[in-house]
Amino acid sequence: MSEIDSDRVREILTDIGYNLSDQGKYFRTKPLYRDSSSATVLSIRKSDGVWKDFRQDIGGTLEDLIRLTLRLKSKSDTTKWLANKGLEGGVLPRTVEVRVDQTKIFKNELLYKLEKNHTYWERRGISSDTVSLFEGGVTFTGKMAYRYVFPIFNNKKQIIGFAGRDINPDQGESAKYFRPKWKLIGDKSKWRFPLAVNHQFIRESKQAILVESIGDMLSLWEHGIKNCIVTFGVSLSPDTLSLLTRLDPDQIFLSFNNDSLNNGAGNKGAYQAKRKLLEFFDEDQITIKLPNKHNDFNEMHLKEPSLLKNFFNV
Questions:
Q1: Which domains are seen in the chain, by residue range?
Q2: Which of 41, 183, 213, 294 could make an SS bond with 300 (beta carbons 3.0 to 4.6 A apart)?
Q3: pLDDT score of 56
Q4: CA nearest to 198, candidates 253, 237, 153
Q5: Residue-wise pLDDT tens digits, 173-229
Q6: What is the per-residue pLDDT for 106?
Q7: pLDDT value at position 124?
């Protein structure tokens, strides 16, 4: 695919009034086609002008942005505008690759193969009433053998992935080095778990708590803290950032694991995630709040549950 020179993209955008901030492969700016107080919410790729508005979750080609910004009525009007700018035929010198969402959809029948046995989580202090809300279960066959498996749903209640927790600790000492605690199937960058269940709680509380794992989320749920989003690791995907800008919470808590006595992964991840969030939110909206004196919230829930009372009140 041929590309537009980045200087040409800058020239066109500046000409229609955009004040651009250079962010490597992208420009960041304030959208001129709507009211906004954010100077970074609109991202425009330098190489071809493809753009995305993270707040409204819309995007398109550079031609689309020109038409939207200048309130032109049709594609032909955009072509005329570009022709007046010296572009032969009013066409940008490249083809636009339209990317179709290729997220895999799994059959809902797979849910019937999960045994509704919540013993593993009950041993970890999570009630069956809580766990059953997320429609998971145990399987002893296939890629997720000897795991408790949670289905990951999209907003259409379609299954787009599975997260399986190892429930078989008695496989021998060597197995610990070859069998991961969690196994994920699907494109986790597209996961918004457990929004299918707790979207309303996040909206009503105007708070979002970002945690590393489903186990953390379940432990907090046991204490009535239901406004969590699981990141499945210590980094924020573009999809999670887009989700947060649309939810527009007053407060975001970064509550990854407290790994200060180990490799520090959760602690470092929280600070890196905060830097990303500061591109879209004010600093007073973002709080790093790691588990006190414990590695994660399940450990806190089991050993000192009183610490969780009012833990996220600010």
A1: 6-90 (3.90.580.10), 102-191 (3.90.980.10), 196-314 (3.40.1360.10)
A2: 294
A3: 80
A4: 153
A5: 444 556 789 999 999 989 999 999 999 999 999 999 999 999 999 999 999 999 999
A6: 94
A7: 95
pLDDT at 1: 38
Mean pLDDT of 268-279: 91
- Whose tokens are 């496989």? That residue is 171
Rg over alpha carbons for the chain, rounded to the nearest Å, is: 23
Q: How far apart are CA 37 and CA 13, in angstroms?
A: 19
pLDDT at 46 over 80: yes
| Distance separating alpha carbons of residues 261 and 146, to the nearest angstrom | 30
Ordered DSSP codes for the chain: -----HHHHHHHHHHTT---EEETTEEEE--SSS--S-SSSEEEETTT--EEETTTTEEE-HHHHHHHHHT-SSHHHHHHHHHHTT-GGG--SSPPP-PPP----B-GGGGGGSB---HHHHHTT--HHHHGGGT-EEE-SGGGTTEEEEEEE-TTS-EEEEEEEE----S-GGGGGTS-SEEEEE-GGG--BTHHHHHHHHHHHTEEEEESSHHHHHHHHTTT---EEE-SSSS--HHHHHHHHHH--SEEEE-----TTTT-HHHHHHHHHHHHHTTTS-GGGEEE-PPSSSSSHHHHHHH-GGGGTTTT--
